[in-house]
Specification:
Elements: E1 12-14, E2 19-21, E3 34-41, E4 44-51, H1 59-65, H2 70-79, E5 93-94, H3 104-111, H4 114-117, H5 133-147, E6 158-161, H6 164-175, E7 181-185, H7 191-197, E8 203-207, H8 219-228, E9 233-239, H9 251-263, E10 267-271, H10 279-284, H11 301-306, E11 337-342, H12 343-346, E12 355-359, H13 362-371, H14 379-389, H15 392-419, E13 432-436, H16 444-453, E14 456-457, E15 459-460, E16 475-479, H17 484-502
Parallel strand pairs: 5-14, 7-8, 7-9, 9-10, 10-11
Antiparallel strand pairs: 1-2, 3-4, 6-12, 11-12, 13-16, 15-16
Helix pairs in contact: 5-14, 6-7, 6-13, 15-17
């Protein structure tokens, strides 16, 4: 859900601590450029603010302009020098944006089938704002099959919109008041901040995980964050599977979040956008007859020579857990537990912009649907999704094969990292892992710039609002859902930058 995708490429100059947007004039956050004039009206003085120069902007827009969003900076640099194997082989390879490119042939073949994508006269008209009944029914059936909710979902529990980012903002509009805050285990997906703060003006309050487990959060840590917040906290937002760690919370941890929320009058929003990309679970549970789990690993020459090399373990690995949808639990407060899911990740459809809000609360759903005309999807996309999901055999095979590809690509990546002595948090879900680049001996931002100069874009920990500490900085999220040749070239560039810094 990166908001940076919506930005147009502009000329960018990078330096040690700043990227200047040449097409824009910096607007100060204070009001020195405003002139206060007194006028007489009905014998009462009124104060009118008149800008001396330039276009008028709201306080909200001025605040947003002055806020730094690192993911946007990175993607703008990449867009100005995007890698292409033929037309720009020396361009920057993007392994920072969470996109799955492993299934382009399969998904394009399905979408471009005339039986799937034919536009009818009805689709030239406006469709239902929350998505058609048929689409919401098909989504409910899909999630019932794979997420095993305690209470089966129906179309009444589903609202479809143009991406999980806009839908999270929609949740912000109906569940929070402007200026409120939410607890979020950190480091956390950087889009959460932009998605809900830029529109709804709701602010994150990071919660520290345990030192030895990146996905273990104690009740004491939640209490401390709640107590120390300078803003009224109304909810908890979590990502499961987690982003940036690429692994899942335990059922016990999810219930801890939910019970804490209920005891403090908070609600929970659980983003499960990678819920069908839980490749370790899905591949392990679907081993074909006569095969073992090793048969699904990468067997290229490079991996054959390196698979015996042991991994350098991370200090924050903690316990590995199977994926548990929050809706499969015996929820203490189901009316105040809401979810997000979408097609961008699990169906490799980032560009089509389709997200889903899930809630058992009729009151919350009614409020969301009241304003979801702001986020409705095109009717032809609605129809395409109906035609795909109604073919359950194809859909379930696609999910399985996608996870086998992710499993193999993860195996190939980690074999390579093991050879080069790079620690990482062991993954089991999503398209990315968190790697430790302390060995570079460089400030994180400076290292990020060096990697970009070396032709590789991966996401630094500061993009996930890591603590400003030695332990949490100099970690990077690297995506692996790309073809093997591109992944190998990316890794060669990474190792070359690290070798240069050592010498």
């Amino acid at each position: 859900m990166p908001i940076a995708i919506a930005l147009e490429p502009i000329s960018v100059i990078s330096n040690k601590r700043n990227l200047e947007f040449n097409n824009f004039e910096k607007v100060p956050s204070h009001n020195r450029n405003l002139k206060v004039t007194s006028i007489q009206r009905n014998n009462k003085k009124a104060r009118i603010f008149k800008p001396l120069n330039g276009p008028k902007l709201s306080k909200r827009a001025l605040e947003i302009q002055n806020e730094e969003f690192l993911l946007s900076k990175g993607i703008i640099i990449v867009r100005n020098n995007k890698y292409h194997p033929e037309t720009n082989p020396n361009g920057i390879i993007n392994l920072g944006t969470a996109e799955n490119k492993l299934n382009n042939v399969e998904i394009l073949s399905k979408i471009n089938d005339p039986k799937i994508s034919t536009v009818t006269p009805e689709q030239l008209l406006y469709g239902p704002n929350p998505g058609s009944d048929r689409l919401r029914e098909e989504i409910a059936k899909l999630l019932n099959r794979h997420f095993n909710p305690k209470v089966f979902l129906s179309k009444e529990n589903i609202c479809v919109g143009n991406g999980c980012g806009p839908l999270l903002n929609l949740c912000g509009e109906v569940l929070f008041d402007a200026g409120d805050a939410f607890l979020v285990p950190g480091p956390f997906y950087g889009g959460f901040e932009a998605d809900i703060k830029y529109g709804a003006r709701v602010y994150p309050v990071p919660v520290q995980h345990e030192k030895d487990d990146c996905l273990k959060v104690s009740e004491e840590a939640l209490e401390e964050a709640l107590r120390n917040s300078s803003r009224p906290v109304k909810g908890i937002i979590i990502a499961n599977p987690n982003n940036p760690f690429g692994r899942c919370y335990s059922a016990e941890q999810l219930l801890l979040f939910c019970n804490f929320a209920k005891s403090h009058g908070l609600f929970v929003i659980c983003d499960e956008i990678y819920g069908l990309s839980t490749w370790n679970d899905i591949v392990t549970e679907n081993i074909e007859e006569g095969k073992t789990i090793e048969d699904y690993e990468c067997h290229c020459d490079q991996c054959q020579h390196s698979k015996s090399i042991k991994r350098i373990e991370s200090d924050i690995d903690g316990q590995s857990n199977k994926f548990t949808s929050i809706f499969s639990l015996d929820l203490p407060d189901p009316e105040n537990t809401h979810g997000l899911w979408g097609f961008s990740k699990d169906f490799c459809l980032n560009g089509l912009r389709i997200g889903v809000t899930i809630s058992y609360s009729k009151t919350v759903m009614a409020a969301i649907q009241k304003i979801c005309f702001l986020t409705c999807i095109p009717t032809n996309i609605d129809n395409i999704l109906v035609n795909i999901l109604s073919d359950e055999k194809w859909t379930d095979e696609f999910i399985l094969n996608n996870n086998r590809k992710l499993f193999k690509s993860y195996n190939h990546l980690t074999n390579s990292l093991n050879v080069h002595g790079i620690p990482y948090v062991k993954g089991d879900s999503g398209f990315f892992i968190y790697i430790d680049l302390h060995q570079a001996g460089l400030d994180e931002y400076d290292l990020w710039m060096k990697l970009l100069e070396g032709g590789l874009y991966i996401s630094p920990s500061q993009a996930f609002f890591s603590k400003d500490s030695y332990e949490e900085r100099n970690w990077f999220r690297i995506c692996f859902a790309v073809e093997q040749a591109e992944l190998d070239l990316s890794l060669d560039r990474l190792y070359k930058v690290l070798d240069t810094l050592k010498h």
